[in-house]
Amino acid sequence: MNSEIDKVQKQLTLKGFRKGKVPKSIIKARYYDSIKAQALNSLVSESLANIVTEKQWYLASQAKLLNIDEGEQITFRMQFEVVPHFSVDDYTGIELFKEERLPDDYLLEQTLNDVRERNARVAEVTRAAAVDDFVTLELTVTENGKVKMHNEEVTLRIGDRSLPDEMNRALVGTHTSDKKEITVDKTTYAFTVKKIEEKVLPQINDDFAKSLHFEDTEKLKKTLMEEARKNEEKRIEAELKDSLSKILLERTKFEVPTSFVESEYKKMLQNANLPDSESNKERFWTIAENRVRLNLILDKIAEREEISINKDEIVRLVSAMGMKLNNENKQSIIGYVGSIMRREKTIDFLLKKAIISEKSRIISPKEAMNDSRSVRH
């Protein structure tokens, strides 16, 4: 209390007294409750900091004061999560299998198909709607008898997995001007078909190549092949990192702080623009938990191996990402980006220390596709 009164006295100005000269007895009488509350807060904060340092704990959540007892000695109870102590062993020399690169002809075919898809156009048709067609609807959605949404013109792709299965089935076979109404659980979808369009893929020829600013088809294919090889190497590297991560998770088990998992889960929902629901929690909670556990494992390895990231590297990446730094967000952004870069650097370190064997492809992608077609036929 006396310490807090001293702090107040230095700044306080009252009528009849100069700044810093208000008697302590007056300060204590007039501001007793607020000074006592601040004194208790300081005492709790200082005690918490001391015990966290003593126990070598890393807090995973904000500390919550449960109760405080002002007897002869002040005692209090707090609740908070800590990152559990765990050890990471056998993280060098991990055996991994590297998949053989996909054949060039298959990569080129897939890449050309992707380019055709990206440059496809739509054309209106008069036939019945089919899967992958685009339908423009006047749509009204009601829930429990109340209109939740009305749109005069909304375009949907038949077969889109974000739509209810009943909606996709109802759209197949419809014609322009058709009206339908379906109910899924307590939600009713009433729509009128205004237009049906199909996707038309372009032919790979010189005219198409020139439309993409290439001299001819050969130049287009050469450039796409180079990009496809680079992407294939990235894919194989990503699979190696994924295998490495799974092994680290299997070898290192510990209880992950719930507050960390909750934060990662909410971040995943936000990035996917999804609501918090029981079904989404069932889908994403375990993934979020594994991500948090892996990050903690990588942080532990980085600490042991003294892996660090130069601050200038972080600032350059932040600048390249177009993120603006100011006095309010600078430390948090640099800390967040720096932790991601440090974990990536740790994974690269582990890959260099791993024992990587080539895994031969048993069957080519084209053979697999032909086999599946022959089975269907």
Explain what you see.
The structure is a single chain. This protein has 377 residues and is of the alpha+beta class. The protein folds into three domains: 2-79, Alpha-Beta Plaits, CATH 3.30.70; 95-100 and 240-376, Trigger factor, C-terminal domain (Trigger factor, domain 2, Orthogonal Bundle), CATH 1.10.3120.10; 121-200, Chitinase A, domain 3 (Roll), CATH 3.10.50.30. Helix content is 51%, strand content 18%. The protein has twelve helices and nine strands. The strands form three sheets. Strands 4, 5, 6, 7 and 8 form a five-stranded antiparallel β-sheet that branches. A two-stranded antiparallel sheet has the order 1-2. A hairpin with a 2-residue loop joins strand 5 (134-143) and strand 6 (146-157). Helix 7 crosses helix 11. The longest helix is centred in the middle third of the chain and has 35 residues, at 217-251. The protein is extended and about 90 Å long.
